[in-house]
Every structure is written in structure tokens, then in C-alpha cells.
Amino acid sequence: MANSILFIAITIILYLLAKKIYSQYSFPLLVPITTSTFVIILILSNFHVSYESYMNGGKWIHMMLGPAVVSFAYPLFEHKERLKSHFLSIIISVFTGTIIGFISGVCLSIGLGLKQDVILSLAAKSVTTPVAMSITTIVGGIPSLTVVYVMIAGISGAIFGPYILTLLKIEHPVAIGVGYGLASHGIGTVKAAEYGEVEQAISSITMTLSAIFASLICPFFIHIFIK
Amino acid sequence: MKYAYIFIQIGFLYCLNFIGITIQNKFHLMIPGSIIGMFILFALLNIPLFKEKWIREGSNFLNKHLTLFFIPATVGIIQYSSLLNGSGLISVLIVLISTIVTMVFSATLSYFLSSRKDQKKEQLIRSELNGK
Questions:
Q1: What is the pLDDT of residues A57-97, one digit of tens each?
Q2: Secondary structure (3-state) at B68
Q3: Spatial separation of the C-alpha atoms in residues A182 and A176, rounded to whole Å
Q4: Which of A45, A175, A185, B48 holds its CA 20 to 30 A away from the CA of A197?
Q5: Is B55 helix (H, G, I), strand (E, B) or coil?
Q6: For residue B9, what are the contacts with CB-CB under 8 A and spacing of at least 6?
Q7: Local structure of B47: helix, strand or coil
Q8: Contact B117 A33 (CB under 8 A)
Q9: Average of pLDDT values for B76-85?
Q10: Cβ atoms within 10 Å of A64's Cβ, excluding its own
Q11: In a mutagenesis test of the A interface, which of B110, B112, B114, B124 is the best target, namely the one with the most A β-carbons within 10 Å?
């Protein structure tokens, strides 16, 4: 019990610190999710604390992800008109982007000879955590391993996104939102929120649509590619 | 007082999440409960009787601290030290490459589609103005 409260406190304090550091030096590698996770992992491994005992406290924070996803409806509602006027662009990009994200991951894995259970676990990596886990269960991968790949996809998008978008000279809010939402789900949406409210709204609708598309196409594509 | 409002509003959002999860389990849906909850809230917001301010503070609070809620799941990476050996490292690299490819492709495509649309709209407004 005391430990659980301690882990909750550590997580919140490190998060606030990481945020403070990021607001001072907004260098992409220092996104709060990377720095705070890194320090917590260092602490846990130094004191030989297992992930299970960390999660006795951590689960209370993790529990807030559900209501946070529900609250995405609010920015969506606020920017309804903007979404409506770009609906076709978003739908087309989400549909093709979800397929590209899936095929590029699976084909590279097959090409480089990864084990089948690893391929099945990383197939849904661009999708938001809860959906990715259910997709992995359906195709027969390892759900807890999927969470890791989902987090890597999220963090790498948040880190490399700014460089990619500058390189491509993309400044359109819809394109920024779609890029982050598709490649990096919720963590990408947090990053998109740094650009503005429209980017955040677009990113969260993109993430939602891609989760729905992915749960429809993944089992089907897996069947073609692997079995 | 402000924090009491936030607390109650988050409680309400949590209930919607719970309703979403119940619906998902009841009908064995592939869409996660939280997203069903989001659709319910979106529908509610479109009803004139439902006031935006009932959830505004709570939503903004959750949105502002979204990163915090991702931390426990991300720390889960600690269980897979095997990702640092040969084939594990390759799989991480594949996820990196595939994420970058996905972002480049989708941002470019929607940039192309959306900016073309904006141009059309601009032309339309201009031609209307000229007509007058």
C-alpha cells in the first residue's frame, strides 16, 4: 500500500519535472514521455523492483487513459466544422496510411526473418494501445509485447515528427494532425497538441478512425501475408 | 472549488468509459470501450440540452496531462530486455522505419488533398467576390 502511493508520487513528480525541462529546452528527444519513462526504468532496475509491483501503484494512473480517450470527444466537437470540410482528405489518408503502416511493418519483418509471434505482435504497432492489444489477441500474437512496439511507434513519431515535417515543408494543420495521429496514435496526439487545437482534434479523429480501420483490416491482411 | 468541478467531471467521463466497456463486452465488439465512450460523449455534446461546460474543465485537465497516463504502460518496456539483443533490436528498428514511412506517406497525402481543397475554396470565394 505504502509502496503503491510512493510509485504514484514518483511517477507524478517525474512527469512534472520532465514537463518543466521540456518547456525550458524543447528539444525533440526530451519529450516528457521519454525522459520520465527512462528515469523510472533506471530507478526500478537499480532498486530491483519488478514491473508488477510498480504497477500496483501505476495502474491507478493507467486507469485514467480510458476517460482521457473519452474526453477526446470535446476537441472533436469544438472543431466539428473544420473536420467536416476536410473529411474526405482525412478518410482517404487514414485508409491508405493504415494499410501502409501495417504492410511496411509486416513486410520488413518477413524480409528480415523475424519470428512469427514477433511479427504478429508488431503488426498493430501504429494503433492506440487498447485496440492494438485486442487486435494482437485476435491474430494470435503476444499482447504485452505489442504494448512495447506501440510505445516505440508513439515515442519515435514524437521525436522524429518535427524533423520529418520540417524536411517535407508541411505546415498544413490537417496534414500535421493526420501524420501524428496515424503513425503515433495517442502519444502523437499529445505532440500534435503542441502545434495547436486543430492539429490535436485532427490527430485524435485520425487515431480513432485508424483504430477502427485497423481492427477491420488487420486480421484479414495477416491471413493473406502469413497463413 | 475548481478542482472539485474537475474531479466530478472526470468521474462522469469515467462512467462513460465504463458504459463503453460494458457495451463492448456485451456485444463482443472489436472497437475498444473507451472509443465507444467517446462516441457517446460526442453524441451527448450535440444535444442542445447537454451543456459543454459540464465536461469542459475535466476534459481539458485530462488532455493537458495525457502524457502522464501513458507512463505506466511505457515503463512496461522494462520486461523485455530481450529487445536489446540481435533480433529484438531488428524488430525495434523495423518499428522505427515503419513509423517514419507511415508518417511521411500520410502527412504528404493529406497535405496534398487538403491544400488542394483549400485552394479550391479560395478560388470559389475569389470568383464570388469578382462576380459582385
A1: 999 999 998 898 888 888 888 888 888 888 888 999 999 99
A2: helix
A3: 10
A4: B48
A5: coil
A6: B54, B55, B56, B57, B58, B59, B61
A7: coil
A8: no
A9: 81
A10: 21
A11: B110
Residue A40 has pLDDT above 80, yes or no: yes
Q: Which of B61, B66, B115 is best to mutate for the A interface (most A CBs within 10 A)?
A: B66
- Tell me what pLDDT residue B91 has: 93
Q: A124-157 pLDDT, tens per residue? A: 999 988 788 878 888 888 888 898 899 899 999 9
Grid coordinates belonging to B31: 472497437
The 3-class SS string of A46-113 reads HCCCCHHHHHHHHHHHHCCHHHHHHHCHHHHHHCHHHHHHCHHHHHHHHHHHHHHHHHHHHHHHHHCC
User: B95 pLDDT band (50/70/90 cuts)?
Assistant: very high
pLDDT tens for B22-33 read 998 999 876 778
Taking the complete model, does pTM exceed 0.90, yes or no? no
CA distance B21 to B129: 51
Joined together, the cell numbers standing for residue B41 give 460523449
In angstroms, the separation between the Cα of residue A112 and the nearest Cα of chain B is 8
* ipTM for the complex shown: 0.86
Asked if A182's CB is within 8 angstroms of B17's CB, the reply is: no
Average pLDDT score over residue span A93-115: 93
Look at the block and give the residue holding cell 442542445: B48
| Residues in Cβ contact with A108 at an 8 Å cutoff, skipping those fewer than 6 apart | B94, B97, B98
Q: Which residues does chain A have within 8 Å of residue B68's beta carbon, measured at their own beta carbons?
A: 11-12, 15, 61, 64
Separation of first and last alpha carbons in chain A: 47
Average pLDDT on A194-223 reads 86
